[in-house]
Amino acid sequence: LGDVYKRQDVDGRVLVGSEVFRGNVVVLAEGAKRCFSRALGLIDECDAYHGIQVRLRASSSINRIEVYVMEMLGDFFSWLVPIVESRQVIVGLASRSARNLRYKLNALVSLLERQGKLRVHGEIKWFGGTILTGPVGRVVNGRVVGIGDDVQMNKPLTGGGLYPSAIAARILAEEVNSALNGDFNFGEAIANYTV
Q: Which residues, other chains included, contact 188 with Cβ-Cβ below 8 Å and sequence gap of 6+?
């Protein structure tokens, strides 16, 4: 894969195995790995945190999202998201270090129970992933267009939500459909996408 990354270019050529493919536009949607994005100059450095969340069956005295900054839990923030209508909550935290994340999250849940903010009836699902912080990268370089985490579009704007990427994906999809119908104008498509 290292050779593949080194032999990309911003003119729409991609090396796959021993074959070179060329397109009017190459859409990068590689997520938080950002290998192509780095190699093609779409992003600079950013911080990456390890996030973990648990969805719980629980009653909660809280009816709004709460965010906590507690040194004992890590060097980022933690959160409680009540889902009142289904008597569930999501509790999560993030840290630069992946060490002891599950232990820290269990400690946070216990603390929230002691404070009377929730009463846990059972676990539903554990999940998590990389949380990127830092400036949004370039979304276009030559004929390469990035979307989502591969250009750091999600986390810096929303703290983890997908709203900006969902809007960008819809706009990009319209432009790709235009290309498939033979109505593609690269300059116009890029102008529409980057507005």
A: none
C-alpha of 167 from chain center: 14
CA distance 49 to 75: 9
| Full DSSP string of the chain | -HHHHHT--TTSEEEETTEEEE-S-EEE--GGG-HHHHHTTS----EEEEEEEEEEEEEES--S-EEE--GGG-SS-EEEEEEGGGTEEEEEEEES--TTHHHHHHHHHHHHHHTTSEEEEEEEEEEEEEEEES----SEETTEEE-GGGGT-SHHHHSS--HHHHHHHHHHHHHHHHHHTT---HHHHHHHHH-
User: What's the average model confidence in pLDDT over 86-106?
Assistant: 90
Nearest to 118 by CA among 79, 73, 160: 79
DSSP 73-107: G-SS-EEEEEEGGGTEEEEEEEES--TTHHHHHHH
CA pair distance 57, 60, nearest whole angstrom: 10
Summarize pLDDT for 153-187 with one digit per residue, the tens: 665 444 445 556 666 777 777 777 776 676 666 66
Extract the tokens encoding 78: 């933690």
